[in-house]
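Structure tokens please, single chain.
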Amino acid sequence: MRPVKLSRNAVAIACVLGVMFMTGAAFAAVPLYRMFCQVTGFDGTVKKADKAPDVQLDQTVLIRFDTNVRDLPMTFHAEQVTQRVRIGETGMAFFDVTNTSDKPISAKAAYNVVPERAGPYFQKLQCFCFDEQIIQPGETMKFPVQYFVAPEMATDRESKGVQEITLSYTFYPTDRFQQAVNGETASGAAG
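Here you go.
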């Protein structure tokens, strides 16, 4: 067999297409991974539920709440550090956020659950973390989280026996907040 000769243009085009494909794959990896985790509960990611379960078990689990702030002038804490709920029971927790600056804050909260094997079963009906939050200067807001631990956790071989779950939130600045800090307008030009 004779080796196939490729023109320089064909090699260049193949290289450019390869680089474009790899760049696109790199940008798509994070949103696709996040979507995968939200659908499956993988890596401690909490699922959003449409309705609470019809069954409540006698078995209880202790829910711990952890709060963090990244690069924002605000305080953030849970009103209760822990709650004990029955598996299948709907729980409600409240979190207080205060903007300690003299400018509005635009922020969003990321969340996860530890141990990770409880992630598929810890589900939220209502959460401030689903949306971007705008907090005015000096304002204190109270955010509710309505959640439950799905009854299936009690029979899953991997998660059976989990007695404590930690729900952790981290508030981080959104692009809108970063633009305001940098003095940019919505179009990206200096303001």
